[in-house]
Amino acid sequence: TPTNAAKQTITVIRGDGIGPEIMDAALYVLDAMDVGLQYEEADAGMVALEKHGELLPAATMDSIRRNRIALKSPLTTPVGEGFSSINVELRKRFDLYANVRPAKSFPNTKSRFPEDVDLITVRENTEGAYIGEGQMTSEDGQIATLTQKVTRKGSERIVRYAFDLARSTGRKKVTVVHKANILKSTSGLFLKVAREVAAQYPEIECNEMIVDNTCMQLVMRPEQFDIIVTTNLFGDIISDLCAGLVGGLGLAPGANIGADAAIFEAVHGSAPDIAGKGIANPCALLLAVGQMLDHLGKPADATRLRAAIVATLEAKDALTPDLGGQGNTMSFAKAIASRV
Ligand code: ATP
Ligand code: MG
Fold this sequence. Notes:
Elements: H1 2-6, E1 8-13, H2 19-33, E2 37-41, H3 46-52, H4 58-67, E3 69-72, H5 86-93, E4 98-104, E5 118-124, E6 136-137, E7 144-145, H6 152-169, E8 173-178, H7 186-198, E9 205-210, H8 211-220, E10 227-230, H9 232-245, E11 253-257, E12 262-266, H10 283-295, H11 299-314, H12 329-337
Parallel strand pairs: 1-2, 1-3, 3-12, 5-10, 8-9, 8-10
Antiparallel strand pairs: 4-5, 4-11, 6-7, 11-12
Helix pairs in contact: 2-10, 2-12, 6-7, 8-9, 10-11, 11-12
């Protein structure tokens, strides 16, 4: 039909554990927003293993390749099923080089910084210490080694991503986090390339900070940060630190972005302990929807969604138990949907 032809299709992966519950909630809100998206469901994780005999079926890969955008619930990777993590496998196969993790203080959430934090960590996702190459433990088990790899190309595209993100979202400052004083080759190359890229964005303030100092500064004065860009290992640690600053995983979204595909998700896992009870907090996935709308060039809709989430938290309207509320996943989603 003509209406559908005008709609953009995204791949939807309902996932495992609480995944289907929070996805229902997220799509309920997205439908209420009426932003012209339609969904193509694809299986991955335990559900896919049971239905199709594999964790990451070819049809799912094709769907993501075709639509280029996926909204994904948490997936469980059973031990001994081919790869160590489906999420890592997806990042590898689609070369999703940028892991983008916003951390923002929200009202009525347990946080040490109730209003000061509004930052985004941009983590390089394909190289650095996590390439898995050169990992060796000597035969006697006394010496372990690991190869790190940083490339000009990898550094350039992640730093460029961070500055473009600053431009497109109206943010003012990018902090390049490194350890070039000690890791002179790898972190040194990253910093050198970052300076070159920063020079091409004169309207955006750029500063450099050593990773250990960054951790201290984040805990003492998080309001000084806007966008942080860094290599894989530092980014992994810092992005979780930042999630902790604003009250933990229940409100932490993440995006994995490559040149040909982007996958948006909640940072938390499948939470089997509360699966099926209808009480999971859908906020992290909804905030990932906000990131997706920004990425799709719909910033006004992303802002509208985030404002509805904030207003619902402020009103303490039908919040889930993890936020101290008496509501459930769907009541929370409906309260948000009524404000979009
Ligand atoms: P996985 O094996 O998939 O990582 P997990 O149990 O480790 O699953 P986490 O997300 O790491 O899942 O959950 C850690 C704790 O936080 C659990 O007690 C879980 O119930 C809780 N939790 C995680 N996500 C949510 C959510 N969206 N709403 C409420 N509680 C959550
Ligand atoms: Mg976990």
